[in-house]
């Protein structure tokens, strides 16, 4: 005679509730979320109220797209108008250079 296996389900082990995480104090804010004040030249584009760095970049891109300042042949290149030329210091800048120029106008 062959032994037959019984398929009994074992009760699931009870899970322990997760222990609350210990707070090590206030979180250090991310560099992109710290509010900064734009210079007068940059305020003409993004407004004069303090903004997070990420918001400054977003508003600058909104301005660039609204005024169609991207080079149609190379979307990475920005063709500066009078306001942006004050910030960039030149007529053309790449999107990679833009953050460097914006940073110089934030405090």
From TrEMBL:
Region feature (Disordered): 1-32
InterPro entries: SWIB_domain, SWIB_MDM2_dom_sf, SWIB_MDM2_domain
Highest taxon, organism lineage: Bacteria
Domain DM2 positions: 31-107
Low complexity bias (residue ranges): 14-29
Pfam families per the UniProt record, alphabetical: SWIB (PF02201)
Biased composition (Basic and acidic residues): 1-11
PANTHER family with a match to the protein in the record: SWI/SNF-RELATED MATRIX-ASSOCIATED ACTIN-DEPENDENT REGULATOR OF CHROMATIN SUBFAMILY D (PTHR13844)
Name of the protein in question: DM2 domain-containing protein
